[in-house]
Amino acid sequence: MLFGKKTVSLCAPCTGMSVPLSEIPDEAFAGGMLGDGFGVEPSEGHFCAPVGGHVESVAEAKHAYTILTDEGLDVLVHIGVDTVRLNGEGFVPRVSAGQYVKTGDVIADADLELIRKKGLPTTVAVLVTNPEKIENAEYRHGSVACGRDAVMSFRLTRKG
To answer: Fewer CB near the terminus (10 Å): N or C of the chain?
Structure first.
């Protein structure tokens, strides 16, 4: 804790290269319209929880997962860009809504080659969708390992 505020980190949801939010090839993600966070260009199709908490939802198209942390942060893991159009093809959820996960627990597998063959980017977005609850975010971009390397660290605010 720094100055009485808890520090939280979000880990890489997959092995690959972490990139700034602005480099995700989607206007809503890149512009921060959906929250604050980062992207990862995955090198393999295994995806894990970037933070511990309860799985709030698994998208019907199996491409997006939301986790509610004990601190009240809503964290979205969105695998690929426009992958909702695949209607679940190539995605295998490993969790269900209501399940508790720890950082690094496997939440999904995805066929990255299939996603690419369909002409879609595989970039994964990790977002805090209630960014009013965080401050002083710092990022570590570059090579990252699934569930092991912290990419985004921040302090919790007293707001929200």
So the answer is: N
Which of 13, 5, 58, 57 lies closest to 37 in space, CA to CA?
Answer: 13
| Three-state secondary-structure class, residue 6 | coil
Indicate if 141 belongs to the active site: no
Of 46, 54, 63, 78, which one is the catalytic site residue?
A: 78
Query: Structural domains in the chain?
Result: 7-156 (2.70.70.10)
Residue type, 37: G
User: Is there a contact between 143 and 156 (Cβ–Cβ < 8 Å)?
Assistant: no
DSSP classification of residue 112:
H
pLDDT digits (tens, 9 = 90+) for 47-104: 999 999 999 999 999 999 999 999 999 999 999 999 999 999 999 999 999 999 999 9
Question: Which of 152, 136, 158 is CA-nearest to residue 77?
Answer: 152
User: How large is the average pLDDT for residues 99-125?
Assistant: 98
